[in-house]
Amino acid sequence: MIKIAPSILSADFAKLGQEVDECLQGGADYIHFDVMDGEFVPNISIGIPVLKSLRKHTDGFIDVHLMIDRPVRYVETFVNAGADLLTFHVESDSEENILAAVKKTKELGKKVGLSVKPKTQADALYTYMELLDLVLVMTVEPGFGGQSFMADMLPKIETFAKYIDEHHLNCELEVDGGVDIKTAPLVKQAGANVLVAGSAVFREKDRGQIIQALREV
């Protein structure tokens, strides 16, 4: 089953609750919540206070993507704030600390994912794969919304899809970056089953229509 995760990085934050409601009522499976710290990536976005407010507003599944340095420091804080799934970047800390962050998230009863930047090879995640609920392949450089899809990431998606299948893992494969009506078929054909879409969803007035189109195209 293909799942759609609208990225609120492209939402109107003056009416964030309404925007999220429209997405969930329109059939969105996850709400993708991008956190940037200005260190791991060259941008600053949103964090704990916004997540707490959003959690009070909705029971929807919140997929928190931590583009931050040394995320193990904040696992418990984000879980307590309302995250249903935490995804860290494998490049954001040492192998020991990434493993600690993954295990801590699981111990707290939440799902956990790991992400790779475009220049990071798939095998960087193989050590962790059996512990993961989700793998996130970035098809743009993390840090800013609205970037163009990097088609040369499709083989990496295929590599992960094959690895997950061959090892019989219960792990979703998510893609984030430049996903729209034109690129959605490409990532689905490569094996992805969770599509993060920001501007493609939030620039449309009929959220339900575009979510369904992304799922079925």
Which labels suit this protein?
217 residues; globular; 8 strands; alpha/beta; single chain
Description:
The model has no long low-confidence stretch (mean pLDDT 96). With 217 residues, the protein is an alpha/beta fold. It starts with a strand and ends with a helix. The protein is built from eight helices and eight strands; from the N terminus they run βαβαβαβαββαβαβαα. Strand 4 (85-89), helix 4 and strand 5 form a beta-alpha-beta unit. The chain is 34% helix and 19% strand. Helix 2 (48-57) packs parallel to helix 3. An eight-stranded parallel sheet has the order 1-8-7-6-5-4-3-2.
Topology (elements, then pairings):
Elements: E1 3-6, H1 16-25, E2 31-36, H2 48-57, E3 62-67, H3 75-81, E4 85-89, H4 95-107, E5 111-116, E6 134-138, H5 154-166, E7 172-176, H6 184-190, E8 194-197, H7 199-202, H8 207-216
Parallel strand pairs: 1-8, 2-3, 3-4, 4-5, 5-6, 6-7, 7-8
Helix pairs in contact: 2-3
Task: Give a brief description.
This protein has 217 residues and is α/β, with parallel strands linked by helices. It has helices spanning 16-25, 48-57, 75-81, 95-107, 154-166, 184-190, 199-202, 207-216; strands spanning 3-6, 31-36, 62-67, 85-89, 111-116, 134-138, 172-176, 194-197.
Strand content: 15-25%
What is the CA-based Rg, rounded? Answer: 16 Å
Average of per-residue pLDDT values: 96
Strand order within the widest beta sheet: 1-8-7-6-5-4-3-2
Q: In terms of structural class, how would the helical and strand content be classed?
A: alpha/beta
- Per DSSP, the total helix count is 8
Helix content: 25-40%
Report the strand count: 8
Distance between the termini: 13 Å
